[in-house]
Amino acid sequence: MKNKSQEMELTEWVRLYTRELYVWAVQRVSDHQLAEDLVQDTFLAASENLGSFRGGSQPKTWLVGILKNKIADHYRKMLRSDIGRPLAGEDVSDYFVKNGHWTRGARPLAWPEEPAQLTDIPAFNHIFDACIEHLPAAMRACIRLKFLDEKKGEEICQELGISDTNYWQLIRRAKLQLRECLEKNWFRANK
């Protein structure tokens, strides 16, 4: 049961941290409405568990921890709903012949010497975000957790409830699809 002091404290946290939590969530889920829902769920969970907050960390750190769990729960739910649907990019024979060489027309286009410079171009970032959003949910979850949250493969497998083999297959397929999408929508379009 919350006392009046805890209620006032929570109200202050909502005022102080909502915007930061929202921005943080949008960066991880790329969906403004979903980010709003996740932040609301975070504060609801904080309200229900306020008695367990002992002040061992900053309130914002505690709230971010709750939000991370809400995002992981969201991705787990997405993965469960994707089970049974075939993954796009399942067949890599479009890219390679039996001896492992690239098939004609599948060879990667030349990328710039410094690919990191691409992220300085807003139009590229827009295309890249769109390519990520078009990945199947399982791939999108793995890519976001690995490269945006910078989590280790073992952590991602645990959070999403998938095997190590499944995780690496999802990452490999996602990279192939991202490469294809970027080549089609950025590199060939900007030749």
The CATH architecture of the largest domain can be given as: Orthogonal Bundle
| CATH topology description of the largest domain | Arc Repressor Mutant, subunit A
The chain-level structural class is mainly alpha
Order of secondary-structure elements = HHHHHHH
Distinctive features:
191 residues, mainly alpha, Rna Polymerase Sigma Factor, Chain: A, Arc Repressor Mutant, subunit A, 2 domains
Sequence-ordered SSE layout with sheet pairings:
Elements lengths: L3 H26 L2 H17 L10 H24 L39 H12 L3 H12 L4 H8 L3 H24 L4
What does this structure look like?
With 191 residues, the chain is mainly alpha-helical. The protein folds into two domains: 4-82, Rna Polymerase Sigma Factor, Chain: A (Orthogonal Bundle); 92-187, Winged helix-like DNA-binding domain superfamily/Winged helix DNA-binding domain (Arc Repressor Mutant, subunit A, Orthogonal Bundle). Helices cover 64% and strands 0% of the residues. It is built from seven helices and no strands. It has helices spanning 4-29, 32-48, 59-82, 122-133, 137-148, 153-160, 164-187. α1 (4-29) packs across α3 and α4 packs across α7 (164-187). The longest helix is centred in the first third of the chain and has 26 residues, at 4-29. The chain starts with a helix and ends with a helix.
Quick structural summary:
With 191 residues, this protein is mainly α. It contains 7 helices and no strands. It starts with a helix and ends with a helix.
